[in-house]
Amino acid sequence: MLEFAEARHQDRKTLFVEVILPLAIAKNYTYRVPFELNNVIAIGKRVVVQFGKSKLYTAIVLAITEQPPEKYEAKYLLEILDDRPVVTDQQLHFWKWLSEYYMCFEGEVMNAALPSALKLASETKIILNKDFEYDKSELHDKEYLIVEALEIQPELTISDISKLLSQKTVMPLLKGLFEKNIINISEEVNDRYKPRKRTFLTINPAYHDQDNLRELFAILEKRAPKQADAVLAYLKLARHQKAITKNELVDESGAGAASINSLIEKEVFIAEERNVSRLFFEEEFLDANFELSEHQQTALDAIKDQFKQKDVVLLHGVTSSGKTQIYIRLIEQAMAQGKQVLYLLPEIALTTHVIERLRQYFGASIGVYHSRFNDNERVEVWQKVLNGDYKVVLGARSSVFLPFVGLGLIIVDEEHETSYKQFDPAPRYNARDAAIFLANMHGGKVLLGSATPSFESYFNARTHKYGFAELTERYGGVELPTIEVVSIAEETKKKTIQSHFTSVLMGDMQAALTNKEQVILFQNRRGYAPVLLCKICAYTPKCINCDVSLTYHKHTGKLHCHYCGYKEDSPVICPACGSTQLEYRGFGTEKVEDELSMILPEARIARMDLDTTRSRNSLQNILNDLEEKKIDILVGTQMVAKGLDFADVTVIGIINADSLLKYPDYRANERSFQLLAQVSGRAGRRGKQGKVVIQTYDPAHRVIRQVIGNDYSDLYFTEMEERRAFHYPPFYRIINLDVKHKDPEILYNQATYLGKELRKHFGEERVVGPQIPLISRIRNYYIQSIMLKFEKDGVSINKVKTTIRDVITQFQTTKLSKGSIVQPDVDPY
Predict the structure, then answer these.
(1) H helices within 35-132, ranges in order?
(2) What is the pTM of this model?
């Protein structure tokens, strides 16, 4: 009997769990596991815990131990939410690396990594899923009460539901309702992604018989000649392409939509609605057995060969060189080995056209993951990746957080893009660099692709840290566009410039319109006019929260702050001197669009910038109209530089290149070259050689000459000399510390103190600042920046980061730190 009691006592071990909470706290908390849950607790499962006086959070189990915490008495965890872990051991290792490398907290990484539905907290808002029909009779009593309450009050917090049911743990109930698709997380449902659909036509197989076809023509030519034209046009198109859309047939036949609909009703045509790309539809990718060109095959062989020795390979391919087809062959190889593939893209908009290409080959094995999806869809993708159902995942930077099992290949397309860098909130990670660590953890390979690689990646390839492959010709032998540089100053003197358009650009636009071709105009500033200026006293309206001038937007008639969203009415009288002589200086995309519509009233003009693409699907609708030739001229910010591929875009106009070239930043020349080259690459991609017109006050600028010659190497070697001399990447590592406070005087003292402490440890040369950044106040917080530079050789960056953390922690223990925010940013640019 005594032996039985001892054995039973041994079974009742007291277990404790270290958990990650979705909060910016320096240490993980430990909770006690109730005895009855000892057998079901596991690392990677979600548990409900109380933190603070009354708040409940979903936490992730990081470690299980029998050792209680030393400094406090562990509370019991309240509930285990999962039957099996939702976060893998490798993910937890990845989170730890991210928090250490980017100098943030594991809770901040967890917050970024998990979809909202997997990290419910007391104040999380719950709403009903209006897109889903449910039967109340199938709900349990408590589920019924929650649903009934949500029908009366459209939004409830978890705390509200807890009070309603008079019980503390309601998260398992909400988890059940979420899995039944009955509820949603409110902040995730506003911008739901919807695929674009198009109607494809095929001719009824009965008319493959020539006698039946002749009989059909005999009937239609007598009774409905327009329908006969439509059938004839279909047969003509079918000789050259496998898929024919209803819109294409209407354009080709001139028969009108009504005639096509009649043929569908008569079952001459069979109509099928399919999800397609919103960016473009490219015929050559329909054939799954496509052949690579000689140049593509050489590049592919070089990549495969390099992967034998190197984990990372850089593919430097000119715009429109057919990099995607090479990616497809590499994905096929990884899948054949039973591996998963992550295909990273810098913009959500780009995923829509690439997904359609890839689905031609990989079908249901491919998943998409980005912030336009609602929470239900994101959790579904998470589970399918975890289960291995998705072999290929296509997504934006947050895709690196998915629970991969056996990741064999990561493709980082347009690897130079700044969109891969997360600026706010923490973790301030770069998805490209994180992807390299992630692939290494899984024993996989990374392919970086770009027409204009980042200097860091190109440097790593030249120093043989990465492998290297090159594609120097456009797909199909299409020539790169011709580039003409026009002096704004010269044309202004000669009075040949109209508004912001030189005679050269105007002539090329008019020629394109005459030839029924399309034009893209690039201006890297949105709004109507960047500055409103009083001619008498030089007063300029500024944001009340930020240290920036307000930009006038004509469509709202207001002055806008592009940093915090503040708006105010545009004054007609100067508030400083009372003068009525106010004028708008400078120009943004809105003004370009407005003035162009007066100069070319017959042209159909559209604008693509942050203002016109805020609403759901607005970006895709603009691109759809461009593809279907409902737009003649598209005016846009740098959004137009990324991934657009349209057959009839033959002219690109860069309205003012100087705004890029004169930016006060050590990367200005690199970024200018990348942007100008990428924008130029949108012209003449399908058989027609395009033309690019660059308008500038400085036609002799070195970077412009390098863009004309497509001379990336000259740019690289010239810039490298300066980078080495002035201690910038890739020769040095940079860590920025932004110190913020609402009082500028207190901030000055805080930043000065931190700067002195850092100099004690790292010396004078490695610490730059504190200094006031270009924008010195954002959202009522004044900012001072300290830049730390460390040579790559002979310095332990881990020890450096430990020291910086210690200095910040020591500063935060002083009275001086009150009210301050210190934000480290590793590899900030």
Answers:
(1) 89-101, 106-113
(2) 0.75
